[in-house]
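Provenance

Sequences were taken from public entries as deposited. Structures were produced by running a predictor on each sequence independently, with no templates supplied. The record for Transcriptional regulator, AraC family from Hydrogenoanaerobacterium saccharovorans is shown for reference.
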Amino acid sequence: MKCTDPGVLPGSDYYFATPSVLAKNLFYYLLCAGSYTCEAGYHIRRKNYNSILLMYVLEGSCTVQFEGRTYVAESGDIMLLNCYKPHEYYTNDYLKSLWLHFDGSQSLEFAENILKTQGVVLPCENPTLFISSINSIMEIFRKHLTISEPSVSCIIHTLLCNLVSVTSVSGALEIESGAIFDAINFIKTNYCANITVDDISKYVSVSPSHLSRMFKKQTGYSPYEYLLKVRLDNAKSLLKKTDKPVAEIAALTGFNSSSNFIYTFQSRTGISPNKFRHMPF
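Predicted structure for Transcriptional regulator, AraC family:
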């Protein structure tokens, strides 16, 4: 559908989708999608439009006003907006973009987590993924095909996951060098010792706060969460593969007491170490 709104140039198009009851209950679902080329005069101001907006800026820039702050998304940036809240965005000169409004599943919680940790405007580390994904959705509309709601849900979820951390088709984190790579290896080598986030930050020569921000962005975990994950993963292996007492396993995996290990294990897995040990898989 061609757009004739102020500031939107010829050749721009956008389309609407109405989700099924099933999609509203289970999936991330699409509400509308567009491919816009805009000039000065394109200006969106809303009290709310109950959805999440994800925009990839192909060229030009987009100014965003949200929660009392002003942001500028430029070529290669992602703009993510919680449109349940008042928002405003526009271009003062030129903007070429691909965008989606979506909702459903954990969309709001997902978006709020990203906004809290990374902000409204994010550099896009995988532009090919975002461009090809949104264009594939646009082609469905342009060809008058029927949307596969589960497939579109997967696309939206993949894009959100890519904003949270570095992802790959294989499911493995693609971190091959740098401070976070070194921090991960330090944790894997020293998890059985009484190490802290300060120890990790000293090893990689960055401040604890900077390490925490970068570690969370690249892995999805805080450094402490990742340390706990490594300890628990190794504890699970020892519980299943050996007859070592729980207290010994606690000591071997870096917990300062068996009671702390039991409490942490149960709070994270939902069952006690002994129940896990005897659980068939």
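Confidence is low (pLDDT under 50) at residues 166-170.
The radius of gyration is 23 Å.
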